[in-house]
Amino acid sequence: MDVQNRQPRPARPHLSEADRRRRRRQFRRRRAVAALVGMVVVALAVTALSTGGAGSGAVDRSRSAPSTTVAPSTTSTTVPTSTTTVPPSTTTTTGPGSLPQTGAFPTTTSASFTAVTAALWNGIVTDNVQAAMPAFFPEAAYVQVKAIPDPQADFTDRLVAQFGLDIAAAHALLGPTPSAARLVGVEADASFAHWVPPGVCSNGVGYFELPNTRMVYSLDGQTASFGIASMISWRGEWYVVHLGAVLQGGTGVVDDPQSGPGVPQYSSTC
């Protein structure tokens, strides 16, 4: 460093004690203002962070966050009304008669047995063989069972024709007001059921046979009954095959009509 070219500092003016106190007060005020400004800046920064920012950088949460509505708890469901017509569904049902035979033993306490006997009773009360046909052995099953030249003709011309005659005879048994008769119950002895094997009675397929099931009814305060001559099985269900008699004579027959419930009788029929 060139000491010779160094310029001397100007002399500081002499300050009085009053000036020095005034300058100290100004310095303290400036420092307090600076501290206050710093606190304000920190407070604004904290507020901006807690609210997602300020000014152009702020996030509008009312737009970015989807609103959620909590549905009230309820057990009822309201189905809206629709003006669109839905076409009915088409269901193809395979009849039991078209399916192969099984060795299942039928019961007389099932809902299907109750439905069979109810259909039979309805046909008798109304003298309507078609109403009773749900209780009758299926034609497709009979075609499988019988090893004869024309089982369809035998089914229609012999079995169903005789069934209609027996329906009319049982209807006549109920007197002038058959609609007043009420079915009380059906009495069957399951121990009478027996297996009829293939090769017997011109059969190509075996089945169980149950004779003389009793239809018990009440009429004019009295209990009476008559029998179902023969029921045979298909796939674990009982069906009527002969109502009045196994061996028919071309006229309607009522099987063993009695006062009171009667008693099922055993017979070794086909």
Task: Please give a structural write-up.
By secondary structure, the protein is an alpha+beta fold. The protein folds into two domains: 29 residues; 161 residues, no CATH class. Strands 1, 2, 3, 4, 5 and 6 form a six-stranded antiparallel β-sheet that branches. Helix 3 packs across helix 6.
Coarse structural class: alpha+beta
**SS summary, helix count:** 6
Tell me the overall shape: elongated
State the domain count: 2
Unreliable runs: 1-13, 40-92
The percentage of residues in β strands lies in: 15-25%
Average the pLDDT over all residues and give the rounded result. 78
Query: Which sheet architecture does the biggest sheet show?
Result: 6 strands, antiparallel
- Which bin fits the share of residues in helices? 25-40%
Descriptive labels:
alpha+beta, single chain, elongated, 33% helix, 2 domains, 270 residues
